[in-house]
Specification:
alpha/beta; Glucose Oxidase, domain 1; Enzyme I, Chain A, domain 2; TIM Barrel; 3 domains; 8-stranded mixed β-sheet; 8-stranded parallel barrel; 18 helices; 13% strand; globular
Length: 541
């Protein structure tokens, strides 16, 4: 049934700009051959599988080189998953039983998915692994998976969701993206936000759109309007700086030297989140203290002026690091990850802190260190004592679990600072899988439950003298950053591409106005009302 002109399809908006274009519906690729057994023999099939894995790996290298930046890091991590020896061994066992290479690899990935699924953080990784499996099987079957997008025009891509390999193929003709699945922290959302492409995700009714339909992608209004023109777009706030400096510091999130260099070209006041695990995703053996020191020194030296907040390794069975034997867990989100690795891998965490201290001394930079996945005050105290015994750091923790959020007042005298990871905190707070389109609205930062939790943490920090930062994806939204400042958050950290716009937003109001806006938002009882209160408050500023 065709959608009538003017129909508004609701979803979750990504970005502050709108676009009008013609739908290019990305249809499912040709079906993969049914899984079957073969008489070729395990050795022949194994060679075919190795050749296809190598071919897909080369494709990932090319896509990563083309994409650059954060996407390049994602492709490197995907390549590690693709070439995982354990995965090949599982597939080999199926080939020994007579299954074809394609069937064996698909079965092996399915088994891995069952082992590692069920965790909001890893669901996206499982989806990426399944996409790799599809590409390997397609190569074996001679099926082309390229999007083959035009280089010119005004296209709004519509599909279920887009993998890293898909987004790397976006051409200049792509001026909007609509997905029926995904959420505000999905890969599609992150890439569209970093490239400034208006998007609406988790828009289930978009499945009824057809190629050639004219649509308005209106992320500020959280909708797609069939036949809509630019005049119907919900107007975003135009921020104009009235102060020389933002009312709270704006820092940058980084994971690599390239990120640090990009952040240094912005107005970032240092780094609010250095994701160290990105340095280890492809390491098959544990790097020495000297090797880690060299890598950290390069990144610290390249980072923007100001403090550099380093998160110690945030890994687990949901984010596997090759040289750490973490096994598999039925529910990785509730398992051994982040600081909990201290039990089995204390030596590595100590080496990481020693490397950071050596890099701090070598570069003269101000380094703060924090541990992820802290659930109790005792864990916070243990980490802080360890870090202070090794280096001259400011020491803190991530607030990601509801348990430590409600104990924030008890951290007085224990930590120097806390940093709130709103992505994980939202997932635990609402028990919501971020890749489940039916739950996407629970993960918007405008949820009153999250906002009031942030306010309580900020109040605890102000009462105890502990600085409270936010480094989650929500801080990259300039409107929400103003709300955070009004709640009492003392710094925010955004992706490099968003630093300057967030800084401008936080320079466009004084602290009194930000507090007034935050109070209006706190009174809201729905995400829509909370967002509207913030926009109304800024419009009157």
């Amino acid at each position: 049934m065709a959608l009538s002109s003017g129909a508004a399809l609701k979803g979750l908006g990504v970005g502050l700009n709108s676009s009008v274009g013609q739908v290019w519906k990305v249809k499912p690729h040709a079906a993969l051959p049914a899984r079957a057994k073969t008489a070729n023999g395990a050795e022949v099939e194994a060679q075919s599988l190795k050749a296809s894995i190598s071919a897909v790996a080369r494709d990932l290298d090319q896509l990563g080189e083309k994409a650059g930046g954060t996407s390049a890091e994602i492709f490197e991590a995907l390549k590690f998953l693709l070439e995982d020896d354990e995965l090949f061994e599982v597939a080999s066992a199926h080939m020994d039983d007579g299954w074809s290479a394609a069937a064996a690899y698909g079965m092996a990935v399915d088994e891995f998915g069952e082992l590692l699924g069920g965790d909001p953080t890893f669901v996206e990784r499982v989806a990426d692994l399944q996409d790799l499996s599809k590409r390997v099987q397609a190569h074996l079957a001679g099926i082309e998976l390229s999007l083959n997008l035009p280089e010119s025009g005004n296209l709004v891509l519509v599909g279920e969701d887009f993998s890293p390999a898909d987004t790397a193929q976006f051409t200049p003709a792509v001026i909007g993206v609509v997905t029926t699945k995904g959420g505000p922290t999905s890969h599609t959302s992150i890439i569209c936000r970093s490239r400034g492409i208006p998007a609406v995700v988790s828009c289930g009714d978009a499945a009824q759109l057809e190629t050639g339909d004219s649509v308005l992608v209106d992320p500020v209004g959280d909708r797609v309007v069939v036949g809509g023109d630019a005049s119907l777009a919900t107007q975003s706030i135009t921020f104009v700086a009235i102060n020389d400096e933002p009312i709270i510091p704006v820092r940058s999130n980084i994971g690599t030297k390239a990120d640090a260099e990009a952040a240094a070209k912005t107005g970032a006041d240092g780094v609010g989140l250095f994701r160290t695990e990105l340095l280890y995703l492809s390491e098959k053996t544990q790097p020495s203290v000297e090797q880690q020191t060299a890598a950290y020194s390069e990144i610290l030296a390249a980072a923007p002026s100001g403090p550099i907040v380093v998160r110690t390794i945030d890994a687990g069975s949901d984010k596997p690091v090759p040289f750490l034997d973490m096994g598999h867990e039925e529910n990785p989100s509730l398992g051994v990850r982040g600081y909990r690795l201290i039990v089995e891998h204390r030596a590595f965490i100590e080496d990481q802190l020693k490397s950071l201290e050596a890099a701090r001394q070598a570069t003269g930079r101000e380094v703060w260190v924090m541990a992820p996945m802290i659930a109790t005050v005792q864990e916070a105290a243990d980490f802080c004592n360890l870090a202070r015994s090794i280096g001259s750091f400011k020491v803190g923790i991530m607030i990601e679990t509801p348990s430590i959020a409600v104990l924030a007042n008890d951290l007085a005298g224990v930590v120097d600072f806390v940093s709130i990871g709103t992505n994980d905190l939202s997932q635990y707070l609402f028990a919501a899988d971020r890749m489940n389109p039916a739950l996407g609205t629970l993960l918007t930062p405008w949820q009153p439950g999250l906002i009031r939790t942030l306010a309580r943490i900020a109040d605890a920090g102000n009462a105890t003298g502990i600085s409270v930062g936010v480094c989650g994806e929500s801080a990259s939204d300039p409107t929400f950053a103003v709300v955070l400042a009004g709640l009492g958050i003392t710094s925010v950290s955004a992706s490099p591409s968003q630093v300057d716009v967030v800084k401008t937003a936080l320079s466009s109001v004084d602290l009194a106005k930000a507090k007034e806006i935050a109070n209006s938002v706190l009174a809201a009882t729905s995400p829509e009302a909370a967002k509207a209160a913030a926009l109304d408050g800024l419009a009157s500023a």
